[in-house]
Amino acid sequence: MKSTRILLPSLIFGIAGGFALTGCIEQKQTAAAEPDMLQKDTTVYLQEGKETPSCKISISYAYLKPASEKDSISRLINEKIQEEAFGKQYVKLTPEGLVSALANDFIKNYNTDVKELFEADMHNGMKAEDVPAWYNYEYQIKTALEAGKDSTVWNYSVVNFQYTGGAHPNTLAKYMNINAQTGKFITADDVFRKEDNAKICSLIMKELIKEVNKKMETDTISSIEGLQSVGILLDTDIYIPENFMLGKDGVTFYYNRYEIAPYSAGDFSLTVPYDDINVYLK
C-alpha cells in the first residue's frame, strides 16, 4: 500500500501556529465590498483515452470583490487570506490566478507521485481492471466568506480534503476572523481574556457533551468521564483553539480530526451563544 501524505506543505494548515500576521494596517474601507465565488472542477487521467486511474479536483474559492478601484482593504484582505490559507507563493495572484495555480499544482503533484509507478505497472502487464485504488487521487478545497459578529467581522473558512492513496482521506479546516474596516486578522488573544479561560472552556465542554450525545444518538454522556469512555479527550484537556469564528449568533470553536478525538469520531464544530460567552470577551 502506498503511504499517505498531503501535498503542498504550504497547504497543510498550521492550526497550532495561530493567525497573527505582522504589520499594522492604517487604511480604512470606504465602500462596501461583497463576497464572490470562483469554482473550478476538473478530472485528469494518467492513461490517455482511459477513465482510470484519475485525479479529481474541485476548488471553490470565496474572496472579497472590491467595491471600487480605490478599495485597497479588500485586496489586502484577499492577499492575507491567500497567504494564510495556501502559502506565500500565492499572495500576489488574482483570485482567478490562484484557482488555476492550485489546480496546476495538484495535477503536477499527482503526476510526480504516481505516473512513473503506473507506467511501470502497465509495462509489467497490469490490466486496467487490476489498477489499485490508491492510484486514484482526489482534492477538494471549499471556502466560505460571510459577515460575522455585528457585521464588523468577516468570517472565513477553508476546508481542505485530500485523498492521496492512504487508508483514508485527510481533511483539515481553518477558520479566520478579519476586521472588516481595517483588514487586521483577529486572534484568540485579541478576543478571549486569559483569566477567564477555564470558564470559557466550561462552556465549550457543555457544547461538546451535547454534540457527542447527538452524534452517538444517546443522552447518557454528561461528564468528561463519559466523553473519555468513548475515546474523546483521552490525550488532552479541552482548550480554546485558534480555530474559532466570531459568527452572528455566537462563537464557534472548531477542532479538526485527531485534535481532541480519534479520526473515527470526526471533527467538532461547537457554537457557544453570545448570551453565554459575552461576559468573558475582551
Automatic annotation (TrEMBL):
Pfam families: DUF3298. Residues 189-275 form the DUF3298 domain. It comes from the Bacteria. PROSITE patterns: PROKAR_LIPOPROTEIN (PS51257). InterPro entries: DUF3298 (IPR021729), PdaC/RsiV-like_sf (IPR037126). This is DUF3298 domain-containing protein.
